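Continuing the batch. This is chain 6 of the set; chains 1 through 5 are on the previous pages. Same settings as before, nothing changed between runs. Recording input and output for traceability.
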Amino acid sequence: MRLKNSIHAVVASLAWGLVVACGQDTTEQTSVRRGDQAFAEGKYDAALAEYRLAVRQGADDAATLARVAHTYAVLNRVDDAGAFYVDATAKDSSFQDQAVSALMVMAKDARARQDRFAMASAVETAMRLRPGLGVSDMSLDLARHYFQNGEYGRALPFYQKALAEVGDSATSEIVFEVGQAYEEVGDCRHALLYFERFRQMVRPWQRGEVDWYIGTCAFNMARDVRTTHDRTEEDLQAALANIDRTLELGEPRNIQAQAWFEKGNILSDLGECQAAMDAYARVRTADAAGSLVDRAQSLFDEIRFGRGLEDLRGGRCR
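Output for chain 6:
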């Protein structure tokens, strides 16, 4: 109703402008006049048909395109309304305020009827017309819409806005979703912050899933450091802290042997030879039949029988 009242006023002003500006009607203007009459009578399908006819006949001015957009908006056809609002605004930027206002009302109406696709479409077009536009209290709904559709990169800015709005009162569910979104886009560093925060918010028996995520992200971050050629000692210490977190949680269970193996490699690179040997020795206890056992034993022996040469190896044990 809010949208209809607003758009009725806009179309009425456009119709008055047409009366003032025109003497003899052209074919297109005749269609527009019939459309305005139908719109005023609440016959929106008929009005749309007349406006679209005017466009096909060559009336591609901003005012006519805006009439088409307004009518689509009243009919709750969000995508069509958005497309014509974009076209009208491109021809005349003075229509921007009308377009953005109508699109945001459509977004809120769509949200009220739980149509997140329409809500997101309306907001996307409004933000295209006015970058940086605020989305009121729709941030969380938009974030979850994109999250549930696998568009994690698009979800994250709205999650951040939602978190800023609720502050410390954010629920554990929201915090976990933000962590998952970061993990899905490959940003384990930020994901871990939210997973660890979630872990502190819930009871011990609720931590199984998040421990898996923390262990996985921590392991991947540690391994990434190991494959970096220009890593520093500080990087290796951070990798060691991450691999220790994976081992502390014992999750994921199927990579614990790999975690001990990686810990041995990191400690070896740091020159902590005895600790590296201890880590390699734990590979067998973590997975006695695994393929890493022989490799770990080989590295263990290499350190054990090559002790005394550490100073010649630049801090490495091998």
